[in-house]
Amino acid sequence: MADIKSFIDNEVKSNDIVLFMKGTPDFPQCGFSGQVVQILSYLGVPFKGINVLENPELRDGIKTYSNWPTLPQLYVKGEFVGGCDIVREMFQKQELQAHLKEAGIAVNEAAAE
Amino acid sequence: MASLTPPASTRKSRIEAALLAELSPSHLSVIDDSERHRGHGGWREGGETHYAVEVVSAIFEGKSRLARQRLVMGALKAEFDSGLHALSVSARAPGE
Q1: In this predicted complex, what is the ipTM?
Q2: What is the DSSP secondary structure assignment for residue B85, as one 8-state letter?
Q3: What are the binding positions for [2Fe-2S] cluster in this chain (chain A) (predicted)?
């Protein structure tokens, strides 16, 4: 378990945006994961998608790491942002765009206005 | 002889009871969405896997989205530990 924790720790700290999800960005295997992929793609921000279905230890480990019982889970600059509901609400209220900009991540301007 | 065994509680009723007890909501709606996710990941025969809750509570005032959702999920830990798979949450303070 310690290995999984350090794996997650390393991923969220070495990538600006990490999405722990079911399936891959190209082929999400869960509607909630798919929604977050769509939002990030619309904003034109690069992100690393990590498929938890490939590793049961990771699937459990990320829930413990974030103290959050569901997937997907979005991290920006090492900080947990939320799951599908929160990401969607933030996006609709332009707060996600602002959050990303504050983190120094360029957002597709057409999508940010 | 009539059985004295109480009827098995549904997950919906347990979710309602837990949220009422922990969040004193002025509005609460719990919808079992499991059927809509038939065949998706995490779904299983018998359902009781996917829910959507709407909670309005003064407890949420001044709290971030993350903090609000953590309160809701924290109240339902026993359900997550026993097969609750997905929970869509709307958590608002009165007047929002």
Answers
A1: 0.86
A2: -
A3: 30
